[in-house]
Fold these 3 entries.
Entry 1:
Amino acid sequence: MSNLTALPIILPLIAGIIMAFIHKKTTIVRKFSQVFTVVNLLVVGGIFLYVLQNGAIILETGDWAAPYGIILVGDLLSMTLVFTSNLVATACVFYAPKSLSKEQEAFYFYSFFFMLIAGVSGAFLTGDLFNLFVFFEVLLMASYGLIVLGNGKAQLRESIKYVLINLFSSMLFVTTIAFLYSVVGTVNMAQVAERVQEVEQQGILTTIAIMFFFVFATKAAVFPLYYWLPRPYISPNPVVSALFGALLTKVGIYSILRIFTLIFNQDVQLTHTLFIYLAALTMIFGVVGALSTNNIKLVVAYNIIPAVGFMLMGIGIFTEVSISGTIYYLVHDMIIKGVLFLLVGAVAYVAGTSDLRKMGGLIHHYPVLGWLFFIASLVLAGIPPFSGFIGKLLLLRGGLAEEEILIVIVGLVTSLLILFSMIRIFIRGFWGEKTEIPLPEREHKGKMMAWPIGLLLTFSVLLGVGAEWFYPSIESISKYLMDPQLYIDSVLKE
Amino acid sequence: MEIIMAILAGILFTTGIYNLLQKQLLRIVIGTGLISHGAHLFILTMGELKTGAPPILSEGVEKYTDPLPQALILTSIVISFGVTSLLLVLAYRTSKINGTDNMEQMRGTDYE
């Protein structure tokens, strides 16, 4: 059964290679991709249910016993995130034909798309630090391919900045792994976690921990390393933006969550307190960015940053409640960011502009898009009973229990400002006098775009309304994370 | 020996970062190349440098080299090779379409 863990990586990889060979036959590629992502989603869902019932499955590749070979660990946290990313990917693949031009589809969109999914799933599943770097590179390579798709002037200008910052942080990642290797002599996460406790000079470990945090914070866009994020994220096609916004920064946050609960939990006083301060600054700067612009795509891109702040806050507070808040928020944010990027893509497409000052009265022509946008804004801001509320409730409760009053206040104010930044788009873009339909030839396509978005949003609403069902498993993940010995024992089988 | 290698890696990092902070695109690409070389050298040094020791551990062998850093470097070199070639093409294309290779002039606030 342990071979199941490799499927979420191998299936998209195979699909991506097949697509590369038949990339010019657009219709076949499109249909095949749609069928394939649904099949993949079902397979991943099956594995997810299996893990939910039977506990983590661990694959030792090539049958090399745990600390020596590369291992894949499909525990409940990993599988939850893999399943969620596949959910977002499915919505994106159905949205793609309406949003991409024929040339973009023919020029390897679907290949890169599948490679990205394989990389993201791999990063979630791996139990080996160097392997984590390799999967980071896989997903980054695919994202480089996706971000230049379209070849526009501004797009190339922004993508080179994106490539450079990611390349630099990857090189730093390798260096940091080398540092850690010289101290503990292994790259297997479970064994690292075990040996870290025995190292005499704890100071050097704290230095390495901060270096790891720097690397992942660059990927996850934590203050002060978020400056590269908003512009490259809005320059490519909306589908690509949705994939990036939903998946890439979350991989960074997942890595912080994993490494700082499993390995570097020895100097909580220093590292995790630092997280709390950075989380507060991330929230403030992100939401100020979102309020500073009239470009609707940029508003949504800036809204990624405060969400990262919320998740980091949970890791910083470091109690069972706050960690479960982080996990809940992680799942919620992946789905809702996918929804929002796809939505603003559709809105900008039907309005013919992404400048808020030139829009108005869209709800008369596109009621479905308008209401979807309204609900999505409420979900993002955390209005009960939606999923954002549950995540924030857990985080703030964790904060209050630890008497971190300042971060709780910042969190509450940030939520309010997020709501303001989103509702501003709804009021200025959708309300107003009924005008001539801006671009009548785009009406049909624009209305078709609402389907995948609506389905994805349904899952998001379910996550909030059905919190009673999901909460027990989230709580068990958080218990599992707070006790690193469980992970170590399940991998090393002592 | 390790000290010399560590200093060398440090020099590579410094020159790499100096180049990374320049305005010209090609210099930036060279800077990333230097940084990745520094990182690779660094991994090698971290696995301890020994001459005349095989990477085999069996009974009776007292002196052996750790093979893992070498495997790691090999992977990392291949990846950075791929990324650098992609970066070169991307930099060429960007400078061609934008009509400049100066990062100062590539700020821009217009989006399609």
Note: The two ends of chain A are 20 Å apart (CA to CA).
Entry 2:
Amino acid sequence: MADTEALAEQALEAATRLLAQKPQNAQGTLQPRSLDAAVTMQPQANLACISVPGAYAYREAKRALELGLNVFLFSDNVSLEDERSLKELAAAKNRLLMGPDCGTALINGAGIGFANAVARGRVGIVAASGTGTQEISSLLDWLGLGVSQAIGTGGRDLKQEIGGLSMLQGLHILAQDSNTDVIVVTSKPPSPAVAEKILATCATLPKPVIINFIGQGATGSEGNLTFTRTLAETALAAAQAMGASTPLPALDTATQDSFLQNSLQGRKPEQRYLRGLYAGGTLCYEALFLLKDVVNGVYSNLEHGAYALTDPFTSKEHTVIDLGEDAYTEGRAHPMIDPLLRNQRILHEAQDPQVALLLIDLVLGYGAHANPAALLAETIAQARALADAQGRNLPVIVTICGTRADPQDYALQAATLEKADILVARNNAEAVTLAGRYLRMLHD
Amino acid sequence: MTDTGNPLLAGQPPCVVNVGIDLFAETLRQQSITVVQVLWKPPPPQDDDLLNLLDSLI
């Protein structure tokens, strides 16, 4: 209670002033409390980036579409029914619904979500995979090309229940786009009926289409369609379709051979198994698929059936895990943002006497950790000290996904790792292939 | 870009409303993209009609 009337008046004035204030951020910018208010404030808005918890995502995405916005929907845990309904609404409104669980898009040169600083160019991408888009778009940049648009669809778009609605819409957009000469399609293997529909549509388009259904293994060409096994081959095939003849950036043979020889020399006989610790889901999936050609079985949290990893925190024989999966990220940031969990896992693996090799991805770009190589190099040094104390070596291959224009400085990231005696591969397929060569040497 | 009738694809950098994780707004600002951050909070358990009415009033 105020002691005097004057103090009471002051208090009332202060309360009135506070009540009249609009919410602002630290820079003093007004912050709307709803999508509607945001669009009123910024009538030019044409894209909503939505990352609220899944239970609220449908409502926000639906409202955004109703307001005439396109939607990049990072949120997951949206039901298939809701996803389909949002995609039908988007189609009716001639808007894009990228997602749910969409990690990456490049729209008119802007990276949305986790994206790399990729040059603008004439290759268009429609992708049901975030790090797949990051790997292909970054490699296109390395090949001297660029991306017109990279449209994300969300990982479940090619399931039977959704029917590839976003991918079909994206294909038609890129087919009409006068800035796109070559189209890239990438996804985990679709449901057979949806695959048929996508392929039939691609075959009618007046442009070359490079198709990478990761894990399906198709290769070769048919009319305007080219099928590729890996993300790196996909970037290369797109570049070739554009008339470019630049080879993919790659490690030279001497460096690879010397890595294998040195690793073999410091190895104990019981060191027989690979541990792949991935932050990028599609990079992990690709590694798993490529390793199946080399070893009999690889345990993973992405596997179902006999090789499903029963305890995600304990590796078994050859194990490759996606640390971006819910089991690891519940209540904490994704390992691309906060590498703590993966670094702990590296130290854990270093103490396993059966570990022969670590295979790791380092994803750069917008949204990723500011200096991931420094933390990784430090962790590997600690891990090697642990292994060394027990008389073992610990060879490490890291694949960097990124471009020279990324905020983290690609050259600095690579140099930091190399200084720490870590082999830096120039793409995931190269890293996995080299890992496979080493495993063959151990198991022959 | 061929006119698709979708303003997002008209060739200009997007103009974004970010609802959720601040990081995504920051990454867009890093690229000099115009972005409005919504001060989003989970709505209290209400019926949809009421929520829509509130949206139009706030």
Note: The two ends of chain A are 85 Å apart (CA to CA).
Entry 3:
Amino acid sequence: MTTGNPMMYVGAVGLIMIGLFTVLSKRNLIKIIVGLTLLDTGVNLLLVAIGYIHNRTAPILTQAHADPSKMVDPVPQALVLTAIVIGLGVTALALALAIRVYGHYKTLDTRKIRGLKW
Amino acid sequence: MRAFVSFSVLALIVVGLALSLSHVPFGKDRMQVANYYLDHGVADTGATNLVTAVVLNYRALDTLGEVTVLFIASLGLGVFLSWPKKKEGTQEEGKRELPEASLIVRRGSQFLFPLIILFGGYIFLHGHLTPGGGFQGGSVIASAFLLMFLGNNAYRLRHTPLTVTESLAGITFVVVGLIGLGVGGYFLNNFLPKGSMFSLFSAGVIPILYSAIGLKVGAELSGIVANMFESRSER
């Protein structure tokens, strides 16, 4: 059995790192939220990539294709399925907070928001 | 300084990940639990989409938790956006007049709206047979409402039907689970007949649960979209 292409993992971890770097280094709240979204996507991609096995199909039986031994791991896919929606909810909540912060401080710059400096 | 600290944190994480993950044989073969799900999934649940079998039969309690997380996120968004009503003096600035969308966009969005809703319903009703399910179908339904908001400036969504749909769907999920507890002895037991493979009315309670999830997710995400658009028009 051939192993998976390591570039999958490198790409997913790279996406996580880009997101983490954005969260850590940017000063605009919207950019930080974009970084969170990238982080989220990278984690989802990593989970799906871990479950992937080369030359196998999605774990869905059809009449033409009903051999469970030729399918990839369904557990990470079930995990990611819900994680995507949760990520969407978290992003929406973060954006709502950003709207509130902007309404209160008239800025999205974390340096000018009291209590958010580091 | 900031970038330097960030880079060192990232380097630490990358080294840690590489050291810990490099010896794990990912992508070689499936785990035991996955083999069990693939070999016995259809016989146990009747769902030919094995991801659905995992989400709504083997791990249905976790799915209830996920739905609750999404509910709390949308609740929090509604609270944050509507709580101090028009107090912070945002009237004078940021209140831009949006240009009306063109006739083609307006009519096109109104034409596509019922079709997208239908497609979303199809996705969550067939979640146990084909790729898709409640979460995806709900997102598609919410995207229809998003299209309506983008295409029509005056479009408003009444919140009462959304709240009622969401609550009823959530109650349905829990009630089906409790009936399973009463009939079969454990929460979310699949007590209905499994039916035959590849038919719409199969897999016991899974289509009911996925429809409930689809309606709930659709109502929640539509509520999120509506809240966002209304907060824009207020300020």
Note: The domain at 6-57+67-105 of chain A is CATH 1.10.287.3510 (Helix Hairpins).
